[in-house]
Amino acid sequence: MEAKGKTNLLGLTKEQLGDVVEDLGEPRYRAQQIHEWLYARGVTDFRAMTNLAKPFRDQLSRVAVIQGLTPLHQTFSPKDGTTKFLFALSDDLRIESVLIPPATAFRDTEQQEEDEQSRLTLCVSTQVGCPLDCAFCATGTMGFLRNLSAGEIVDQILQVRRLTLRRVTNIVFMGMGEPLLNYDSVMAASGIFTAGAGIAQKRITVSTAGLPDRIRRLGLEKRKIKLAVSLHSAVDATRSRLMPINRRFPLEDLLAAVSEYYEETGQRVTYEVIFFDGVNDTEREVGALIRLARRVPCKINVIPYHSIAFTDPTGIGAGLRPSPRLEELVRRLRDHHLTALVRSSAGEEIDAACGQLAVRLSRSPGERRAVRGLASQSA
Ligand code: SF4
Known about the structure:
binds iron/sulfur cluster; three-stranded mixed sheet; DNA polymerase, domain 1; TIM Barrel; 2 domains; alpha/beta
């Protein structure tokens, strides 16, 4: 990426940094040193890269920049320790990230992982807005503006580390946007998180609305990052109402891809489900979910619903309410020997669901209408 005629180093992989240093007449191993300064130590000034000779640092300053996000707003929930961050991009668009401490991650009556208490998960955005328009999602109401670069994705973790002085241990691509529609940048960012920020691939999860080709690609590339699928219903008619992408890729297509992914990687998939009153919490729906969940080894994450009433939703979105049967539904799933985890309603008071803060804080109703106009022009 170029910034004012200079190359922005933030988001470049070791390989790409190698090309930059070679072009400047330096040995390729210098890329390893710069990679470490950028991603392990998070420096933003070439002068701080003290193991590089001063003439080389000066040369870097002339041809390159380290340009990241601008932190705008931070909301902390004293109740559960969840923190939400709002960032401005260089073109003044807004994205958000959510830091989720262990107590508010998934609650399970079964075996907890050993490292549960030290886990600190960052939910990162991959697009500005999203084109998929799920009925329950604030981000969807923004429409799609653009993909984030690998640097804009990576800088979310670097900024959060800097702002909180805490070590992020897990990453979920579950913020604003559909990550598999921005495949190359998301995979580049994952590689950087792993190589430079010390986050193992098994601690990185990509959450998708269900794009079969991209799921297959993850499998064929033998990615060790985890796959989560926003399912929300195992009945095509219901899922299509909640998630329009299902009209293009119905459940059978999705399940075939998930099955191939499992065969290639041996990794079980996570299905995410929000139960809505009278929509997907009926006997028929739960029965279909149980049958679907038996097809490929999986676990089910049950996520509480954060109302998006402030976005003035229309259609089915206007009538969505959280199911009052949540406990009973989870019990049903467990009675059928399925692993069902329940996320606490952490962060509700700070708009911690996808897109809520960015839509609410950065856009007045008038601005939101303007953004929608912009989105339809760019579609
Ligand atoms: S839930 Fe995810 S895929 Fe659906 S509109 Fe929101 S950001 Fe896009």
